[in-house]
Amino acid sequence: MSATLFKFNPKPILYLTGVSIIFCLPMIALSIVNFGMLSIWLNATVAFVILIHHFSFLAVTWISRKHANSAQIVAFEDDEFQLDPTLTLEDLEPPMPCSLLNIIATTFLCIITTIAFSIMVDITTRGAIRGTLPVERVGSHKWNIKVQIAQTTVLGTELVTLWAVLAICALGRFRFVEAKEKREAELEYGGKLPEV
To answer: Using CA atoms in the order 145, 147, 151, 152, what is the torsion angle rounded to 10 degrees?
Structure first.
């Protein structure tokens, strides 16, 4: 019989990743419609980087669930990760959403999206001609405030979605490490720890 280390439901992360992918599509479309240089290059680049991460993440998550190896969690049952009892605790890895690599990548996405959002807010509030960034003044005669507001709004919702994904992943990793340390302590003392 396998022992449960901790409960973790990856569905919210997968749903939020899907929502984030959907938000990337209007980000790209609006960046093409707007003629400001930063609107074209910054937002489209951020959207493409986010899409690359999300599709890679979904592919690796799907593959790891289909082909779990001995160093990973071996089965999902009622949103619980079941552990192979023959493995030592040092061999265990957190689920893919809670992996350190995914958390670092998601943090990077949050940082670049925050920077892009703050630049878009500056451009939207000041306008292209009076903007603090001279590069945005190129082509400003074709600048459209409605497209700029829509672009900033989509970027803001993308930012909130990414921060939610990061929070859930970091919380899952924290719970994994906490449960692993508790299990190590139980094994060290030869049974269950007394409740405090």
So the answer is: 20
- Return the ∠ at Cα 124 (arms to 122 and 127), rounded to 5°: 95
Residue ranges per structural domain of the chain: 4-85+92-188
Nearest to 39 by CA among 160, 170, 148: 148
- Rounded to an integer, what distance in angstroms lies between the CA atom of residue 65 and that of residue 144? 46
Side chain identity at residue 166, one-letter code = L
Q: Are 176 and 94 in contact (CB under 8 A)?
A: yes
Helix (H) or strand (E) holding 38: helix 37-66
What are the helix and strand counts (H, E) for the chain?
A: 4, 3
Q: What pTM was estimated for this model as a whole?
A: 0.75
**What does each of the 196 residues of the chain score in pLDDT, given as a tens digit?**
334 455 666 788 889 999 999 999 999 888 887 766 667 788 889 999 999 999 999 998 888 777 654 344 433 344 444 444 555 566 667 778 888 999 999 999 999 999 999 988 888 887 655 554 555 555 544 567 788 888 899 999 999 999 999 999 998 888 888 877 777 776 677 655 455 4
Q: Map tokens 């919702």 to a residue.
A: 157
Report residue 5: phi and psi, to 5°: -85, -50
Joined tokens for residue 179: 């449960």
